[in-house]
Amino acid sequence: MAFSRRVFLHTVAAGSAVAVAGMPLAALAATQVKYGGSAWLGHYPAYLAMTEGFLKEAGIEQDWQSFGTSSSRMSAVMSGGVDIACTGIVSALALMARGAKQFSVIAIPENFGRVEGLMVRGGVKSIQELKGKKVGVTFASSAHLLVLDLIAKAGLKPDEVTVLNVPAPELPAAMQAGQIDAAAAWTPQFDAIRKQPGVTVLADDTQFSLYQSNKVTPGPDVLVVRRAFAEKNPEAVKAYLSAYFKATALLRDKPEQAAGPLSKLTNLSTEDQLAAVKGADWYSQAQQAELLKGPYIEGLQKLAELLVSHKQIDKAPTVKEWIDTSFV
Amino acid sequence: MSQADTSSMISVQGISKHYGDFQALQHVDLEIAKGEFVVLLGASGCGKSTLLNLVTGFDRPTGGRIFVNGRQVNKVDPHCGMVFQQYALFPWLTVIDNVAFGLKMKGISKAERHKTATHFIEMVGLKGFEHKYPNALSGGMRQRVSIARVLANDPDVILLDEPFAALDAMTRQVLQDELLQIYEKSKKTIIFITHSIDEALLLSTRMLIMSARPGRVVTDMVNDLPMPRNAEVQLSPRYNELKSQIWDTVQSEVMRSLKATSH
Amino acid sequence: MISKPPSRSALLSTSAASIIVFLAVWELICRAGWIDPIFLPPPSAVFAKAMGMAGEGTLIGNVLASGRRVMIGFLAATAVAIPLGIILGTSTYARAAFDPILSFLRPLPSMSWIPLSLLWFGITETQKYSIVFMGTFAPALVYVIEATRNVDPLLIRAAQNLGANRWQVMKEVILPGSLPQILSGMKVILGLAWTCVISAELVAAREGLGFLIMNGKEFFQTEVVVLGMLLISITVLVTDFVFRVLENRVLRWQR
Asked: Which residue of C has its CA nearest to A70?
């Protein structure tokens, strides 16, 4: 049978229409979001939201980029290489103190009190006994502030204890080799070190002075977004957050289900991974409104002042000015 | 003869030397007695420097043996003091330290070797320059330091490889005179290389003319011109006679070497 | 027409003027608000920070801490490289034996030695010295070997002719003869030592210019970072100058 040209063209047109209709809507509308992460617990929601498909459903294509330090992650936010990231408050406060307006705080993911702490060797029973000893901690981190706070609370002067700057990945080896007498770290190094023979946890974040008053740990996590990105894609940020909090709900309600995919990120055993997930209080979207306005932010302000008193930053910024509740 | 002739200072026996395909010396036999001033004369590339290097021990012969003062040469020996055309002074040492160098190597104390060095510095007419560095000296002065340095070491033989070729005519004349005076005073055995016939006639007691490569001794003649070789001697008929004798030999050797290299 | 060459004071004034112009432009750009101070602080901020640190007494401490690490590592490396280099330069057998080790060591940047050095020396000053040593030893050795082989062979012959044995030739001829080239190579190596110290201070340091820069970066105190960089440049220039004075004394004979 001879095809007439007309019939041919009609068939092609019909075929294309079917093909177009068949394409999933999401793929057509997907927004690219660059996320700055690491193996730290604060990134669990973003990671889970990616592996469990929550982000895809919300029309987000997440590009995961790993950063070893908060400062490098925040530098990437400043320069536009990262759009959304969970970061330890210290780097964010340092930038706020410099008046950097390139980012906003849009959510508080979790509260962790028991996955960061100070560990000691050799049967040391109190902070006072650390006098004259070497403590290894990554400078400019939450663990660093914890150490400074614990030393001050114990009535010791800052130079009575030798505090050395050791990058987080090097801490377990340094502790094992006996090069330091104590180490302050967060998960996963926290888990690795406390398992070493002869090592005990002397104190964790719950002993932090502000925790006891405002439930603020030395370096709480905040979720930040790059303002330029948010201004261009406000709907995408809202969609991101709804997927994000689906993940926190999973972490809170079904930790066993979350542990499996997460161990691919952290390389922890399922047992340790489960303990890590359970070690934090995962906040929900509904809780954000209260968190982002009230006493928690006051607690963050006090934290900024504490950093100033320990000479970590020059002046305390007005934290409120960076909080943006419009996306939750 | 295959044994060392103990009356000779230097005994060169059947020496040959080649570098790969290139034959520098072939069957060189000669005896040099103590106190002779022997001049090796010849065109460039005829192996004069090679022979000198074999005598000092800088190089090993491919065949044959060399004896200096009864001992066979198989390594570098300070008993043959070499004066180089390029002076080879140690630029970081003062004149006096340069001259005293050989003595320092022998382990002689500083006071003693400086005393000896000063003596020879004066002998070559450089009194007052003991604490200067070589780069502050002219070419002629540097060569004098070089000679003093060799003399201070008290070698049995002094070897000079075209030592004055780089100097201007007037300086050369002065140094030639000085060298003759040192020779007369010290009675050292001297081997001197040059390609100037006049220089050979002026300085030598014996002249060896070497052929183009492969190098051999073509002519061995005694220089019976009287000492001192002043202007009168240099203008005498005997001088011209010797000169024309040598000239012809040297000329033909130069021609041969040019022919050899042209194809 | 032949023009007079510029006088030394004229050249110095030109350099000084160029520095002043550069600083003025930099300050103006920052004041005009075209650049966020986090990305580039004005010279006035850097200066103010320097004064603040000087007042606290921490400024000199950081310079000296890094300076000490550089000096000890550098001196240790040259103390080994010079004699070893002379031996390797003179003996072809020794060179053949050592060549594979040298080829392995030479391309390794000082940072790659950090993990091993931490295991061997722990968190100590020795560990820092070792980083500077490992970063400078191989290049220094290469310089010395080159310098040794460039000594005029005629001088070696002359020395042998004057009765020097193998060791005397090395000590009395090759060492002084290669010294000019060794010294100019060492100036380069000293600069290299400073880059090593920066990577050494990444781990387990509490003071030093590298630490200053890293710490400043963590807290986004860019003027501290710039100050640290400036101090490094100034210190290197000063040591360069001292080196040159030393060179002129030791190599008096060259003039």
From this structure: C218
